[in-house]
Amino acid sequence: MYAILLTKRPTPMYAFEPPTRLTSVFETLRREIVAGELRPNSPLIELDLAERFEVSRTPVRESLQRLAAAGLVVPRKRGWAVREFSTEEIRENAEVRLALEGYAAGLAAIRASAAQIAELKAIHERRLALHSSNEKMRVKTNREFHDAIMVASGNGRLTNAIYHSGQFYFNAPIARAATGDELALGNADHELILSAISQRNADAAERAMRAHIKRTFAVFWRLTGKDVAGPPDVA
Amino acid sequence: MYAILLTKRPTPMYAFEPPTRLTSVFETLRREIVAGELRPNSPLIELDLAERFEVSRTPVRESLQRLAAAGLVVPRKRGWAVREFSTEEIRENAEVRLALEGYAAGLAAIRASAAQIAELKAIHERRLALHSSNEKMRVKTNREFHDAIMVASGNGRLTNAIYHSGQFYFNAPIARAATGDELALGNADHELILSAISQRNADAAERAMRAHIKRTFAVFWRLTGKDVAGPPDVA
DNA sequence: GTATGCGATCTTGTATGCAATATTGCTTAC
DNA sequence: GTAAGCAATATTGCATACAAGATCGCATAC
Asked: Engineered SS bond to B108: which of A74, A112, B152, B193, CB 3.0-4.6 Å?
């Protein structure tokens, strides 16, 4: 149900860029930060990284500039450190995602082609047919479902923004597992979203998606044990 | 009425970073791209820039990496060029902004302090009292109004995302002037938004803000002469 | 006039050098 | 034992060097 938060997808931002040492270092560091392999606040020493990647400091430094612009590393008095996100910041990101993905669902209700809606239905069916222990496929179909809606929104930049707003949850302790109840509710949410999109009801689709994402983050709050209010009800 | 699109505000992303040649080059280029002084698709030659800024290629290259991550320059077969935004991309950005700023207005209705609401009212009053020829103050009060709502949303990242989504309109031919009718409608929009926030009606605030932004972009479409459908009605 | 080769030039990607400054750790005074 | 001072070290910001590859222009062939 929460797989989209764990998706590793190459950012399309540099689609036509030839691979260089810089891009390789950047992608690797990005993945490691996002996956939590590099712990928050650990300092990033240029020379160490250069040694590790067997390159000179130049491509390392340029990678760090990209990471900085992406908000994944923060400046220290000297050099950079892996950014740490507070619970408060995670809540803020949840709200951004809520705003964006909810809107995307509404757009999808308006713009989705018949084929796209059929595809969405097919994904949902596949998901319902899964055995409850099949976590891998559950993760996969969830991602597919959300991705298909983003695509159907007909807005590449919105898709991109949603993707980036997802990055920021990885630093937090992440739970892949939700309770059986939570999973069932998630499926019911998908059902509602799909139904609203099929009926071309943008308003309902947006509300359903917001409720769904809110539920996702409620699991986060529960698992992290932090008493942070989720995004309030809007619309 | 459209001033927020022209706002130049330092991005808080690198707040604690000491000024260096890199940051100076980056800020200058960023401003010039966003302001349209560097034309879309013009190639950015490292050596030329280095010469112009009287620095070596190193800080120039690192600036370009940041600009690339910010989406302001795009890779070419060789080097970088100022990014050009198509009408389609501008529409996409408008939708992102609609989603974000609408949601921010909804949050503001829930979270704004009494003082923040009073401030919002004061800004609106100042705006209404302006002489119609006072374009400068009209621009300023508009920015203040929108900024105050973003602050009242209590979500720094949302604010930041809205700010960044604004960058991308600068490349397009920009009109500062709207017709008298459009200005009046803009003020009426503000009135509605303010009223909804005062009454703690998140749903109404969000709808009002969406309508307002949609109207803003309608002016864009009119001025650019492009027949692009604005964002559809959602919520 | 147009196309083709080919060399000169331009531009980038990467490595390295160097000076400035932050940090560390040791020594010494108390 | 703790604090202060100071020298050694680590690390960065920037400049420069150089090779690889793209691009351009010109000469030549047709």
From this structure: B152
